[in-house]
Structure formats: C-alpha cells, structure tokens
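Schema walkthrough. Field components (list of strings):
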Amino acid sequence: MEEKYAITVDDLTVAYNYKPVLWDIDLAIPEGVLMAIVGPNGAGKSTLIKSILGIIKPIAGSVKIFGKPYSKQHKEVAYVPQKGSVDWDFPTTALDVVMMGTYGSLGWIKRPGQKEKKASLEALEKVGMLSFKSRQISQLSGGQQQRIFLARALVQNASIYLMDEPFQGVDATTERAIINILKELRKAGKTLIVVHHDLQTVPEYFDWVTFLNVKKIATGPVKDIFNDGNLTKTYGINYKVSVQE
Amino acid sequence: MNFTEYIDLLFTDYTLQTITLGTAVLGALCGMLGSFAVLRKQSLLGDAISHAALPGIALAFLITGSKDSNTLLIGALISGLVGTFWIRGIVKNTHLKSDTALGLILSLFFGFGMLLLTFIQKMPNANQAGLDKYLFGQAATLLTSDVWTMCVIAGLSLLVLLVFWKELKLMLFDADYTKSLGFNIKFLDVLITFFIVVSIVVGLQTVGVVLMSAMLLAPAAAARQWTNSLSVMVGLAAIFGATSGVLGTAISASANNLSTGPVIVLIAAVFVLISFVFSPKRGLLFREIRYWNNRKDLQLNKTLAFMYHIVKTHENIDHPHAIKILNSFQGFTRKSLQKLEDREYITLNKSMWSLTEKGFEKAANLYNQSEENE
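Field assembly_structure (string):
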C-alpha cells in the first residue's frame, strides 16, 4: 500500500548570504501525525517551516503539499508564526486578528461577513479567549497572544498546521490548553508540525519527531528514534534525556 | 493682513481658495498614507524619498527646459522611485541595515540634487529662478491644475485603500502570514510604496524636500495616540493632516512673509505634541495620573492587607482593634485611614478601628486579583 504524505520535501537547501541554513533536506511527513521539529538555536527549524510555506525561497529543492506545490495548496495549510514576529502594538482587536484567518479562503478584495465572524468567535471560544474578543491586542498577555494566533490558524480550517514555537513564553495552563487542542486536531485527522524546544515533553506530546541541525539528522516515530544517540548527534554534546516511562 | 481679513479673503480670493484647498487635500492624502508608513516602521523612508526626488526635479528641468510643475514632478517621481528601490536593493543584497541604506541614499541623492541646482543657477540664459522653491516649498505657487492633480491622486489612493483594505491591513500586521495565505505580497508592497512615493512627490511644491516627511509622519503619529482601530487611525490622520494644511495656510497668509510649508509642519507638530500629552489611553499626562493613583491605591492596599492579617485571627470580622497596633507598621497615616473609611472598608471609632464586611472581602481578594486584572 502506498503511504499518503501530507508534506514531502526533496533536496531542500536554503542559504542566507551564502551561508547554508538548511542543507539538502529530504522529508516525508505522513498524514495525521503530530510532529515535533527539534534542534539547537540556528538549526534552521523556523526556516524549514517558512520554506514549506513558500515564505522563503530555497536555492535548491522542492516542497509538495499533498503532491502539489504550495501555491496551489495554500488553503490546506494553516500557519502559526512565532509570537515575536509581529508588532503587538498594532491598532487592532483580538477578534480582528482571528478574522484574518478567514482572509485566505475569501481571496482578494472580498470582505469577511457574518459567516466569517461566527467562525472566528467559535475559534476564540475554543481557545478560551471569547471574553477578550474586543480587547486591544497589546493589552493581552503573552499566553493570550499565543492563543489568539492559534485561534487564527483554527479558523482557517486547514488539513495541515505548521506552528513555530507555540509554547514559547506561555504558562503551564496555556501550554496544557494548547496541547489539548493540538491532540484534538490530530484525532480529527489533521497533520501538525510544531517547532518545539522542551525536549522533556516530546514523548508526552508528540508521536513523530524530526531532528534538525542544518542537515536532517533523523525523522520518524518518537518511540523509535527519540533516543540519546540522535539527541547527541543533533545537539553536539553528550546528551542524556530521561525519557519518561 | 490680520485673521479676520484672511477669512474675508478666503471667500473672495480665488488664489487663496486654491492654496487652502491644495494644502487641505495634500494634508489628508499624506495623513492617510503616512499611517501605513508609520505602521510599517518605514517612517524614515519618507525622508529618503523626498530628498531623493530633488535631482529628478533638476534633471527634468535640464532636459525639458520647462518649469511646469507637472513635468518637474514626473522627474521627482522617477528619481524618488529609483531611490526607494535602490534602498530596498541595498537592504536585501548587502549586510547594511536599513537605516544606513536610507541615510546613504538620502545624502547621495540630495547632494547630487544640490549640485545640479547650483549648476543650473550658474548656467547662462537659464531662467532658473524658482527651482529652489522645491527645497522648502512655496504654497503660493500652487495653480488650479496642481490642486486638481492632488485631488486625483488623493481620490486614487482612497480607492486603492478601500479596495485592498483587507490585504493591506493583513500585510501591515503580519507579512509572512499574508504570504502563507496565498496573497501576492510583492504586489501589495509595490502598490502601497508607489502611492507613498506619489503623495510625497505631489507635496514637494507646497512643503518642500526637506520638510516633506513630517507631513507624512506627524498626522499619523498623532492619530495613533487616540485610537486602537486602523480605520479610525487612517481617518483621523487624514483629518489632522487636512487641518494642519488649512491652519498653516491661514497663519502664513495672516502673518506677512511666513513660509507656508514650515508653518504647516509646525501645526502638525502641535497636533503630535497635544496627542502625546493628552490622549486618554496612551498620553503622558493620563499615564502619570494613573501611575499616581496606582501608587496611592497600593499604599491603601498595603494598610488594608496588614489589617486583614490581624482580623483573620479573630472570630468576627468587625472586632475592634486599637490604632496603636498599626504603629509597628509604617504604611498608614491618619489620612489613609480616613480614606479607607470613606471607601467603607473600615470603621473608625476613637482610637479603635474595625474591618467591615466589604473591607474584609476586598483584602481577601488582594491576594488573588492578579488573574482578575489581566
């Protein structure tokens, strides 16, 4: 039986100013996994996600979403950027930011209407932020801003979710709330790719993992490949992680 | 001419009407597009563009020999656009940061422009008088045709903003995300940059190369203080810009020999000053007031918390205690006790105090209000 891949990456190489950031990456991500991308700072984790999304142009290689190029498949993919990538003092409200998730399916010029507003309110409720809908976004805490970004991705109603450090700077409650939503999405058959930093929680949260450090070190099910050998190869020091039983 | 004479003249004098309308439309146009420049953190770009336009004006004159403002402005537009895209090229392809690139291009183009201007001045037979008005602007030279140009450009800009509002807003807030949704961000970027350049160029005749960027930034910076909605901000910036234009023209026409451009810019600066001090949410004044109120509240809360710890050990809340036992604690004065009583948190009876039900609740909540306040 031929396995169905949500994302396939072939020979992907990306460089900033002649310095390679990603080197010859091959990746086949099966549909329906909840995958972590782990690696040290500067390993190219965010770059990999941005390359998949077509935000960064690679110098070589190709990316396919369900067998087709991204430009034809952008409605299948939702993106949660790093929280720090935007200016939270921008004059807008929480609901407004979530509504932005509907812009992709609306296409050019068409404005969001009642249907889009309803979907956005539902997404806000799902992340527990409904009561903050009219709040100016600079008045939200870091965890709340992260939830707003998650809600914006949820409202896209995509098949694939690419998330860049969704747990960065959030408290334990928010982390738990977010991981529950991610697990729910996986149960609904969605594919999730998450840049993750906390190695301790990888076995608990994810079922698939990719080790990245400019080159791809390993990719596969957590239970098979999440071990000290791969961690040492990725982080370059003799790494011992106490895998929880 | 005094101010009343000015008002009389405004209704009768065609030239003054033209100039007033021109500066108003220019102010509105710049305010509107300036909001986008400010929110994109491209404030300095306006300064670079306007300076970069100067050699274009001089070259257009050298090539055509005409001083018609539309011809010169097309030259300004071309060299402004060349400057803009050169800056972007430098940022994209070298290690230089954008402030360095902006400064470099600004000085380079301005220097070249000044060189050409002095060259033109020394030319025999050249009817060069008047080109230097583009340095500081001269609203008095505005013709009906110039105002028409401004109106058409303002109308076009408004149309573009309305049509692509959703996309432009998205790009302003989160460019990468915009790209991930399948929108052509290059098109949006070129579109908004083009209109910013055009609005700067049409303002050069009135405000001049040196001060033009203030027209773009001041109304937008002022408007940001009063609202948390992008559409309101753009509208307010247009109103502030138009008002600066009208008031600036009025003042410079009322007082003899005051150059219009600088007066308009100063009026716009007054808007910024007022906005930064008096805006209720973001202004310095109210922030200071809130700060003092918070400090005072904190003082009271400290006292209340201390009382709470004493009362907690007793069966009934309203059990009276001597004020004297607060002596070991520095955070109270007669005045603050009075304030607590005014708020019905405590009752005072000679040298004794006791906590009320309301005060007890308030004190108990002090410890878990962090959630509430978020």
